[in-house]
From TrEMBL:
<dbReference type="GO" id="GO:0009279">
    <property type="term" value="C:cell outer membrane"/>
</dbReference>
<feature type="transmembrane region" description="Helical">
    <location>
        <begin position="12"/>
        <end position="34"/>
    </location>
</feature>
<feature type="transmembrane region" description="Helical">
    <location>
        <begin position="72"/>
        <end position="89"/>
    </location>
</feature>
<keyword id="KW-0812">Transmembrane</keyword>
<feature type="repeat" description="TPR">
    <location>
        <begin position="183"/>
        <end position="216"/>
    </location>
</feature>
<feature type="repeat" description="TPR">
    <location>
        <begin position="149"/>
        <end position="182"/>
    </location>
</feature>
<keyword id="KW-0802">TPR repeat</keyword>
<dbReference type="Pfam" id="PF13432">
    <property type="entry name" value="TPR_16"/>
</dbReference>
<keyword id="KW-0472">Membrane</keyword>
<dbReference type="GO" id="GO:0046813">
    <property type="term" value="P:receptor-mediated virion attachment to host cell"/>
</dbReference>
<feature type="transmembrane region" description="Helical">
    <location>
        <begin position="95"/>
        <end position="115"/>
    </location>
</feature>
<dbReference type="InterPro" id="IPR011990">
    <property type="entry name" value="TPR-like_helical_dom_sf"/>
</dbReference>
<keyword id="KW-1133">Transmembrane helix</keyword>
<dbReference type="InterPro" id="IPR019734">
    <property type="entry name" value="TPR_rpt"/>
</dbReference>
<protein>
    <submittedName>
        <fullName>Uncharacterized protein</fullName>
    </submittedName>
</protein>
<keyword id="KW-0677">Repeat</keyword>
<feature type="transmembrane region" description="Helical">
    <location>
        <begin position="40"/>
        <end position="60"/>
    </location>
</feature>
Length: 334
């Protein structure tokens, strides 16, 4: 969890926070070494602690896009104010810390409750393949909160399920406009062009997503898949290894990564690495079961079109020993 937070925060902001902590902490320790203790020392130490809190909060707030900062400020500023007051009035610190935590909890619950209800209603319609009704609910939510990129992203996914790629593309482009420092919109466009069979454009947008989020697995995974489709075997290997190094969290995506790696290794005549990838694929039995359940769903038409053959091949390879599986991939090559 901590590693993901650092990856999300970014190297520059993380270094700023740790550097600020080191400087303020060191200065505070140096003040403790003054003998005899001066009466002004606790006040300066309190000010140093306050400086760290303000600086760390600023680093986190500026990580969000401009459209999201208002909500984050509403969440953080009152809590930060309570903590700062507690620093300067130590006897109140515990009570004010509880107030700060309570404010954050209440703000999170009250801010998300209504949105959560709308999403729940939309998901119920989606599960019944009632895409128009689900889209209408999220569209009303977008009218109420036009600057929330997550609403646009979710509606884009609903449009994709409904087969309306033109409107899905428009929503992903709006996601990019609202969150230019995020790779989410670019990943969405990459997936749309992949669905359409336009691998060159898919790869182009995948590269943009990866440039924005180089430490996240999704963009590297998509690039590895697209490069595999294009026969760019060395690039496919490089991106899939990068995705796996970024710790793909779920078994079904690791399964696909190992499948495409095995194919790429066979096509580059690296039989040893192909065997290793196939052995790893056969260890992802849970992922195979997940794909079988997902693809059997009525809502999985899009996924079956894009990944159905890959999952079928992975199922065949998982049921063979590594040597036989390697031969199957070789036959696919020929």
């Amino acid at each position: 969890m901590f590693g993901r937070f650092i990856a999300w925060l970014g190297v520059g902001r993380a270094r700023f926070i740790f550097g600020l902590l080191a400087i303020t902490g060191l200065l505070s320790l140096m003040l403790n070494a003054i003998q005899p203790p001066e009466p002004w020392i606790p006040t300066v130490q309190t000010a140093l602690a306050a400086l760290f809190l303000v600086g760390a909060a600023a680093a986190v707030i500026t990580r969000f896009d401009r459209q999201e900062r208002r909500q984050i400020l509403i969440l953080i500023v009152p809590a930060l104010g309570a903590l700062l007051l507690g620093l300067f009035v130590p006897q109140w610190f515990t009570a004010l810390a509880v107030v700060a935590a309570g404010w954050i909890a209440i703000a999170l619950i009250s801010g998300r409750a209504a949105v959560r209800r709308e999403y729940q209603r939309a998901i119920k319609h989606m599960r019944k393949s009632e895409y128009d009704e689900a889209i209408a609910i999220i569209s009303d939510l977008i009218k109420a909160e036009p600057d929330q990129a997550d609403h646009r992203r979710f509606r884009a996914e609903l449009y994709r399920l409904a087969g309306n790629l033109r409107k899905a593309r428009a929503d992903y482009e709006k996601v990019i406009a609202l969150t230019p420092n995020s790779g989410v919109g670019y990943n969405g466009l990459a997936e749309i062009y992949l669905q359409e069979g336009n691998f060159e454009r898919a790869f182009e947008y995948g590269l943009k997503a990866h440039a924005l989020e180089p430490n996240h697995w999704v963009a590297a995974y998509n690039l590895g898949m697209i490069a595999n489709r294009m026969g760019k075997w060395d690039e496919s290997i490089a991106y899939l290894k990068r995705a796996l190094s970024a710790k793909i969290p779920d078994s079904r995506h690791r399964l696909m990564a190992y499948l495409w790696l095995a194919c790429a290794y066979v096509f580059t005549d690296d039989q040893t690495s192909a065997r290793e990838a196939l052995a790893a694929l056969q260890g992802e039995k849970r992922g195979l079961r997940e794909w079988q359940i997902i693809l059997s769903s009525e809502q999985a038409t899009l996924l079956r079109r894009v990944l159905g053959e890959d999952v079928a091949l992975a199922e065949q390879l998982a049921q063979s020993d590594v040597g036989a599986a390697l031969e199957q991939v070789r036959n696919k090559r020929s």
